[in-house]
Amino acid sequence: MARRRGALRLWAVVLWLAAWQLAAVILAAAYPHGGLLLASPLSALRRLGELAVTAAFWRAVGWSACRILGGFLLSCLAAAVLAAPAARYGWVRELLAPPVAAVKATPVASFIILALVWLDSGRLSLFIAFLMVFPTVYLNLLEGIRQTDPQLLEMARVFRAPLGRRLAGIYLPQVLPYFRSAASLGLGLCWKAGVAAEVIGLPAGSMGERLYTAKVYFQTPDLFAWTAAIVAVSAAFERLFLKLMDILAGKAAA
Amino acid sequence: MEIRVRDLCKSYGGVPVLRNVTFTAGDGVTCVMAPSGAGKTTLLRILLGLETADGGTVEGADCRWTAVFQEDRLLEHLDAAGNLRFVLGRDYDGARAASLLAELGLEEAGRKAVREYSGGMRRRLALARALLAESAALALDEPFAGLDGETRRRAWSCILRHRAGRPVLLVTHDEEDAAGLGAAVVRLA
After folding, report:
1. What is the pLDDT tens value at each position of chain A, 254 positions in all?
2. A154 contacts B87? CB cut-off 8 A
3. If I label A224, which of A79, A115, B1, B82 is the partner at 20 to 30 A Cα–Cα?
4. In chain B, which residue's Cα lies nearest the Cα of A161?
């Protein structure tokens, strides 16, 4: 069944790629500069192949990844530090509710422009990734902690299990699925918001800057190639992070 | 060690659950018997420090307890050893634990996570946990629920062998349990 669904998905992807290729060919034939409007998947792939063997490409990937994933990790840390007291004390929860709701509701572009007033463009993607991921991770962790079985906590209290054992034996197994789902969402979100911040802030050497340059010079194959690179890097980090989490969860359960 | 309970009262939302409960539990096994809803579990929860009584006094219960709760309250993702390590920490002795688990007929559990256990296996592991953990007294809330006759008798002898002089307060519906453990019986109205 899963194999059949996988084959169907593959066919769907192939079909859409063929439609994209056809549209690019038609546009190129219909207009003198039709190729500028829509690069074909083959030309984008060719360009990505050319870029991927240059040091500058990997420097840009490293530059953006360090800041965007740095923002993501800082966000996870802050969410964990704040969700624990928020789950315990109602006043902490209420104190944090307005800023969390505001960050959730405000368009990312507003924050990017506002942050450009405060920060240099080099730190912008880190800050924006941090800000966009925080509500998702914080709210999921808060829910996970609040769903912890009170009967198990009572048992730990009667048996006088110390905090370290309570964290590893009761809280962690309860919270990890919530964190995993938040991390999966947050990793996609941080790349989208982080690259958007780079495109607006144009920090030198970032993937967002390359994307913007490609747009300015009508280098459509570059535009698609950088977009594909961002999607691939984002997906790779998400898979890697979730795999690491699964290994850690397996070790915690052993 | 003696636990003296005098005129203990407890109500929930104005509905009395315990009314002037008075008894003394000695060093041995004391069996608290009462019809359903008569406050047996509430009584144990007060002794364990998980509830506060509305009135009356409890003397001698301010010590370290271990318990079998009405629910098993086991860590589902861990195996038997993991659950025992959780309460025992560095005091966990693999050989001693394995021997007690074998006495309770849990040797076949092996490395299986508790979520794969049957109801009876869970109950026996909860009992093993209470017996192995360091404490001055044991509170057992229907520890034999769901156990068949033979397993129940094995559990009785385990309690008698491993309580190590600690007073045991046992809540049960079954007269046979009290007789099998040679327990003093306290009846709640």
Report:
1. 778 888 889 999 999 999 999 999 998 888 877 778 888 899 999 999 999 999 999 999 999 999 999 999 999 999 999 999 999 999 999 999 999 999 999 999 999 999 988 888 889 999 999 999 999 999 999 999 999 999 999 999 999 999 999 999 999 999 999 999 999 999 999 999 999 999 999 999 899 999 999 999 888 999 999 999 999 999 999 999 999 988 887 776 66
2. no
3. A115
4. B87
CA B147 to chain centre: 15
Query: How far does the CA of residue A181 sit from the closest CA of chain B (Å)?
Result: 19
Those residues of chain A whose CB sits closer than 8 Å to some CB in chain B are 151-152, 154-162, 165, 169-170, 173, 253-254
Name every chain B residue with its beta carbon within 8 A of the beta carbon of A157.
50
**From A159, A165, A254, residue closest to B133, measured CB to CB:** A159
Domains and CATH numbers, chain A: 1-38 (no CATH), 39-253 (1.10.3720.10)
Contact A169 B86 (CB under 8 A): yes
Collapse the DSSP code of B40 into the 3-class scheme (helix H, G, I; strand E, B; otherwise coil) and give the result. helix
| Residue type at B56 in one-letter notation | G
Nearest-by-CA chain A residue for B132: A159
Nearest chain A residue to B111, by CA: A254
Contact A71, A192 (CB under 8 A): no
What are the structural domains, with CATH classification, of chain B? Answer: 3-75+119-187 (3.40.50.300)
Q: Which residues pair with A3 in a beta bridge?
A: none
